[in-house]
Automatic annotation (TrEMBL):
Belongs to the heme-copper respiratory oxidase family. InterPro entries: Cyt_c_oxase-like_su1_dom (IPR023616), Cyt_c_oxase-like_su1_sf (IPR036927), Cyt_C_Oxase_1 (IPR000883), Cyt_c_Oxase_su1_BS (IPR023615). One of its GO terms (biological process) is respiratory electron transport chain. It is found in: Membrane. Keywords: Electron transport, Heme, Iron, Membrane, Metal-binding, Respiratory chain, Transmembrane, Transmembrane helix, Transport. This is Cytochrome c oxidase subunit I. SUPFAM superfamilies: Cytochrome c oxidase subunit I-like. The keyword Metal-binding applies. GO terms for cellular component: membrane. Gene3D superfamilies: Cytochrome c oxidase-like, subunit I domain.
Length: 608
C-alpha cells in the first residue's frame, strides 16, 4: 500500500474494526467479511502470520526436544530398560531399549526439526513477519498473499514430515545432512526407504516457504519504508532480517537442487551421487556419480543456514539490549557492516565441513583462511554488545537476561569454532562430541536464547498481555545453567575421541570413563526440557490470562512498533503512518530517558 492510504476506524457492537481505503472514500469494510477462518487461519495480516509461525515452531520445538530426551535416555542409561518406551514405540523399542535404527531416526529428526522447522521458520518467520512492517512503518508486507502462502507451505512441509513418523518403515535416518550413498539407496537400511522420500519432499516444500517469505521480506524493507525511514535509520533487527533473507534467497535453491538430484538417484535410476557400489556382494549398475558433489550442494546451504539461524537472534539481541540498558547501541554502522561481512563470508566457507572428505588440501587451506576471517565480524558484534551494556542503567527483565545469556554462549561456543576452523585439528575432532558441543552452544542454544528474548520482549505487542516474569526468571536460570552443564563437558569427550551418533559406548574401555558424565548430561537434559515446557505453559496461559498491557510503550522503546495501538488491527496505524526523524537508539540524550523516532529534531541536534 502507498503511504497516502489511510485507515478509517469504526466502533461497532463487536468492538473496533477497520476500513482500508486510499483516503479517497473508496475503502472496503473488511469487518463484515472476516470470519474466524479469514481472520485467524487464512489470514493475510502479517501479525497473525507471524503468530502462526511462532506457535507452529513451538509445537515442533517440543517434538524435536522430546526426541533428544529419548536418545539421551539411551546414552545416559544404556543398560537400563524403560518399558514405557516399548508401550509407546512398539517394535522400535523392544524390551524397553531403543533399537539402533530408531536411534538414528531420532537424531535425524531431532536435527532436521530444530534446525529447519524451529530455528529457521520459527525464528525468521515469526520475527520477520511481526517486526518488518511494524518497525519500517508499513501497513503490511509487500505481498500479503505470498506471505500467507509462505506459512501454508511451511504447514504442508510440517504435515509431510510428521507423516513420516507414522509409516511402518519409520522416518528418515541418514542424519540431518542425508549424505548419500546411505540416503540414496533404499536397500541400505530401513530408514532409507519411504521415510527418506517423505523427508526430501517435505524439505522441498520447506525451501519454497523460505523463498516466498524471504523475497517478501526483502521487497518490503527496500520499497515500503515510511517517510524519513532511510536505511541508516532502520533498527538492527531489520538489518539482520534483511541479510538473513538475502542469504536464504541465495543459498536455499542450491539445497533444493541437491535434494531433487537425490530424489532422481533414489527413484529414477540416475547416478549423480552413486558410483561403483556393492550392496550385499551385488554390484550396482551406477557409475560416474560422486557423493562429494552432494556434500558441496548441501553445505553451500548448510553453512549459510547457521547464519540464517543466528543473524535474526543477533538483531533481536542488539535491539533488546539497547532498550534495557537505556543506552544507544554502540557502533551502529560497525554492527551493520559486520552483518554485511558475515553475510558475504557465510557464502564462502561451506567446505570447512568437508576437511575429511578427501577434498584437495590446498582447497582446504583457502577455506581455513575464510573460516577464520568470519571470526572478525562476529568479534566486532560481541565487543559492541559488551560496550552497549557497559555502565548502562540495566533492567534485568527476562528478555534482557536471555540477551546476556546469548552473548555468553556465543562467546564460549564461538571460541571453539577457531579450533574446528583449523583443518589439521579438525581431522582429529571431526564427527566427535566436540563438534556437537560447538554448534549446539553457538547455534542451538544461542539462537534459542535470542528467540526467547524476542518472545519475552514483543509478547505485549503480539497479544496485548505480559508473560509471567517469575516463570521467565526460572526459565532463564535453569536453561542457562543447563546449557553449560549439557554441552561444556562434551568438548572434553570430543577431544578424547568420543564419536557422535553412536548408540552405546559401554563396549569401549576408553570411552567407558564418560559413563557418569553421560548420566549427568541426560539428567540435566530432562530438567531443561521440563523447564521449557513450563515456558510453553507460560506462553499459552498468558495469551488468555496474562496481565493486560495498559500503556502503548511498556518498555520505553524508541522504535515505531510501539506507536501503534496496544492491539493493532490489520493496517497497524490508525490514520497516517508516522514519519521518522531520527535513528532508533536515542536513549539517555539531552537529559531525557528516550526520544521516539517520530519526534522531530531540535534545531541544534545533529542528524543521524
Amino acid at each position: 500500500m502507498n503511504n497516502d492510504q489511510t485507515i478509517h476506524v469504526h466502533q461497532g457492537a463487536e468492538g473496533t474494526h477497520e476500513v482500508l481505503g486510499n483516503g479517497h472514500g473508496n475503502g472496503h469494510d473488511h469487518h463484515h467479511k472476516q470470519s474466524f477462518i479469514t481472520k485467524y487461519i487464512f489470514s493475510q495480516d502479517h501479525k497473525v502470520i507471524g503468530k502462526q509461525f511462532l506457535i507452529t515452531g513451538i509445537i515442533w520445538a517440543i517434538i524435536g526436544a522430546l526426541f533428544s530426551v529419548l536418545f539421551r535416555l539411551q546414552l545416559g542409561f544404556p543398560d537400563e530398560s524403560f518399558p514405557i518406551l516399548e508401550t509407546v514405540f512398539g517394535k522400535w523399542a523392544k524390551g524397553g531399549h531403543i533399537e539402533p535404527e530408531f536411534y538414528y531416526a531420532l537424531i535425524t529428526m531431532h536435527g532436521t526439526i530444530l534446525i529447519f522447522f524451529v530455528l529457521t521458520a520459527g525464528l525468521s518467520g515469526t520475527f520477520a513477519n511481526i517486526l518488518i512492517p511494524l518497525q519500517v512503518g508499513a501497513r503490511d508486507m509487500a505481498s500479503p498473499l505470498m506471505n500467507m502462502m509462505s506459512y501454508w507451505f511451511f504447514f504442508l512441509a510440517s504435515v509431510v514430515m510428521i507423516t513420516s513418523l507414522f509409516i511402518s518403515t519409520g522416518p528418515a535416518s541418514g542424519g540431518w545432512t542425508m549424505y548419500p550413498p546411505l540416503s540414496a539407496l533404499g536397500q541400505a537400511n530401513i530408514g532409507s526407504k519411504l521415510g527418506t522420500d517423505l523427508w526430501l519432499v517435505s524439505m522441498a516444500l520447506f525451501v519454497v516457504q523460505g523463498l516466498l517469505g524471504n523475497l517478501n521480506y526483502i521487497t518490503t524493507i527496500l520499497n515500503m519504508r515510511t517517510k524519513g525511514m532511510s536505511m541508516t535509520r532502520m533498527p538492527l533487527t531489520i538489518w539482520s532480517l534483511f541479510f538473513t533473507a538475502i542469504l536464504g534467497v541465495l543459498s536455499f535453491p542450491v539445497l533444493l537442487s541437491g535434494f531433487i538430484l537425490l530424489l532422481f538417484d533414489r527413484n529414477l535410476g540416475t547416478s549423480f551421487y552413486l558410483s561403483d557400489i556393492y550392496v550385499a556382494g551385488q554390484a550396482l549398475p551406477n557409475e560416474g556419480g560422486s557423493p562429494i558433489l552432494y556434500q558441496h550442494l548441501f553445505w553451500f546451504l548448510g553453512h549459510p543456514e547457521v547464519y540464517i539461524v543466528i543473524l535474526p537472534a543477533m538483531g533481536i539481541v542488539s535491539e533488546v539490549m539497547s532498550v534495557n540498558s537505556r543506552k544507544p547501541i554502540f557502533g551502529y554502522m560497525a554492527m551493520v557492516g559486520s552483518l554485511f561481512a558475515i553475510c558475504i563470508l557465510a557464502l564462502l566457507v561451506w567446505a570447512h565441513h568437508m576437511f575429511v572428505s578427501g577434498m584437495n588440501p590446498f582447497l582446504g587451506s583457502v577455506f581455513v583462511l575464510l573460516t577464520l576471517l568470519i571470526a572478525i565480524p562476529s568479534a566486532i558484534k560481541v565487543f559492541n554488545w559488551l560496550t552497549t551494556i557497559w555502565r548502562g542503567n540495566i533492567r534485568f527483565t527476562p528478555a534482557m537476561l536471555f540477551c546476556l545469556g546469548f552473548v555468553s554462549v556465543f562467546i564460549s561456543g564461538g571460541l571453539t569454532g577457531i579450533w574446528m576452523g583449523n583443518s589439521t585439528i579438525d581431522i582429529h575432532i571431526h564427527d566427535t562430541y566436540f563438534i556437537i558441543a560447538h554448534f549446539h552452544l553457538v547455534m542451538g542454544v544461542a539462537a534459542f536464547f535470542g528467540m526467547f528474548a524476542g518472545v519475552y520482549h514483543w509478547f505485549p505487542k503480539m497479544f496485548g498481555r505480559y508473560l509471567n516474569n517469575t516463570l521467565g526468571y526460572i526459565h532463564f536460570w535453569v536453561s542457562m545453567a543447563g546449557a553449560y552443564l549439557i554441552f561444556w563437558p562434551m568438548h572434553y569427550m570430543g577431544l578424547a575421541g568420543v564419536p557422535r551418533r553412536y548408540l552405546d559406548f559401554t563396549l569401549w574401555k576408553s570411552f567407558n570413563q564418560f559413563a557418569d558424565l553421560n548420566k549427568m548430561i541426560s539428567v540435566v537434559t530432562i530438567i531443561v526440557f521440563a523447564v521449557n515446557l513450563m515456558f510453553v505453559f507460560n506462553f499459552f496461559y498468558s495469551i488468555f490470562k496474562g496481565r493486560k498491557v495498559r500503556t502503548l510503550n511498556p518498555w520505553g522503546a524508541t522504535t515505531l512498533e510501539w506507536t501503534t495501538p496496544i492491539n493493532p488491527g490489520h493496517g497497524n496505524w490508525v490514520g497516517e503512518i508516522p514519519e521518522v526523524h531520527r535513528w532508533p537508539y536515542d536513549y539517555a540524550k539531552d537529559g531525557r530517558d528516550f526520544i521516539p523516532q517520530t519526534e522531530p529534531l531540535n534545531p541544534n541536534e545533529s542528524k543521524h
